[in-house]
Amino acid sequence: MSALDQISTARNDEFAARVLFIATKVAQMVAAEDAETADHDVRVKYSGFVIRGDDNAKMIATHVISSNPTIQSNINADPEAMGSNISDGDIEFALSSIWTARSLAYKDR
């Protein structure tokens, strides 16, 4: 139940690669979303940033973990799994829920 276990998972190369792979999927979905979606322009700009590989996979993983209690619980339940016990669907849900916040953080890049 330690933040250290969550940090270790976020820094794990395999978990971070999974998060980045799914982030690329979400980026593609956002790039094709309705132009009337709130914050669409900044969301699409960030999507391009992710698709080009300009974001940091381990920082995205950190944000995914820190923002989602379900993912935190899974890590806490089995820290040795290093996130392998977290479903791709849970990661995709977390990414979708933080996309606008990440987009706004990167809007001036």
Key phrases:
109 residues; mainly alpha; 6 helices; elongated
Describe, in plain words, how this protein is organized in 3D.
With 109 residues, this protein is mostly helical. The chain has one domain. The chain is 72% helix and 0% strand. The chain has helices spanning 3-11, 13-31, 40-51, 57-67, 69-77, 88-105. Helix 1 runs antiparallel to helix 4 and helix 2 crosses helix 3 (40-51). The protein is elongated, with a radius of gyration of 14 Å. The N and C termini lie far apart (36 Å). The mean pLDDT is 96.
Distance between the termini: 36 Å
Q: Which structural class is indicated by helix and strand composition?
A: mainly alpha
Radius of gyration: 14 Å
The beta-strand count equals 0
**Nearest-integer average pLDDT:** 96
Q: Roughly what fraction of the amino acids lie in strands?
A: under 5%
Residue windows where pLDDT falls under 50 for at least 5 positions? none
N to C succession of SSEs: HHHHHH
By oligomeric state, this entry counts as: single chain
- In one word, what is the shape? elongated
Task: Tell me the domain tally.
Answer: 1
Q: How much helix is in the residues? A: over 70%
